[in-house]
Amino acid sequence: MIIDMEYQYTGAGNLEVMQEAVNYNRYLASLVLKQKIEKSDALLDIGAGIGVFAEMIQQAGYVVKCLEPDMSQAKILMEKGYDVYASINEVAGNTFDFLYAYNVLEHIDDDKGALLQWVQKLKPGGRMLIYVPAFNSLYSSMDKLVGHFRRYKRKDLTTLCRAVGLTPIYKPRYVDSIGFFASLIFKYVCKNNGNLNKKSLILYDRILFPLSRIGDLFFYKLFGKNIFIVAQK
After folding, report:
1. Rounded to whole angstroms, how far apart are CA atoms 136 and 105?
2. Half-sphere exposure of 40 toward its Cβ, with a 13 Å CA cutoff?
3. HEC-encoded secondary structure of the chain
4. Separation of alpha carbons 71 and 31, rounded Å
5. Whole-number Å distance between alpha carbons of 9 and 58
6. Taking the chain, what is the end-to-end CA distance rounded to the nearest angstrom?
7. Does domain 12-232 have CATH number 3.10.450.50?
8. Using CA atoms, how far apart are residues 145 and 139, in angstroms rounded to an integer?
9. Domains of the chain: which residue ranges?
10. Structure confidence by residue, pLDDT tens digits, 17-63
11. Residue among 216, 206, 220 at smallest CA distance from 3
12. Rounded CA gap, 203 and 72, in Å?
């Protein structure tokens, strides 16, 4: 069965399965590590889950704090030794040099309002990386299962960032070109079941995702399963 590798920690089943996506997870963490962040910078992981990305980034020598409203996942983060905020309202303004949010914004009805709150927590000159699912045409049973309000295109992210006072450092890039077609197939084949298949995901992660990253070198302006942007306050 073709799977949609949309990253999401909603639901215990998908949480367990997505931890098997080692290449995908490593790639997402690398997006932050490529941003020339200083070791002394204050970083915030928004929607940190159980700390998969925070751990990889912290292992590279950075100090990461976490925002995670889910109490069970926040407990796991605290047991791992992270400082955890339960709400963005607990975060003081102008506190962080860098924020990152992997597949969070699409879960929020008022995405502009949420993004504005995040911006307020950045120091002047601070940066933010936003990674979200792409193209509403790919909206599937999985999106519905995990509570997505929407998917995004390049223009959507650019407009949204500028509306809250962020300046894109470079134009948004689509990610996972092969995943675009896998997601399209998933949409029509798995109309009533949004759960991930572990064996299919591992196959995709080990074989197809590395090939997809090669495709991204050519198609990042045109299409992909996901999209990200880095913008500055």
Report:
1. 14
2. 0
3. CCCCCCCCCCCHHHHHHHCCCHHHHHHHHHHHHCCCCCCCCCEEEECCCCCHHHHHHHHCCCCEEEECCCHHHHHHHHHCCCCEECCHHHCCCCCEEEEEEECCHHHCCCHHHHHHHHHHHEEEEEEEEEEEEECHHHCCHHHHHHCCCCCECHHHHHHHHHHCCCEECCCCEEECHHHHHHHHHHHHHCCCCCCCCHHHHHHHHHHHHHHHHHHHHHHCCCCCCEEEEEEEC
4. 27
5. 20
6. 43
7. no
8. 11
9. 12-232
10. 567 789 999 999 999 999 999 999 999 999 999 999 999 999 999 99
11. 206
12. 29
| Tokens (6 digits) for 110 | 């008022």
Burial class (CB in 10 A: 0-12, 13-18, 19+), 99: buried
Rounded to 10 degrees, what is the CA torsion of 65, 66, 71, 75?
-40
Q: Which two tokens stand for residue 39?
A: 């070791």
Token pair 């962020």 is at which residue? 166
Q: What is the pLDDT of residues 197-212, one digit of tens each?
A: 778 888 899 999 999 9
The reported pTM is 0.92
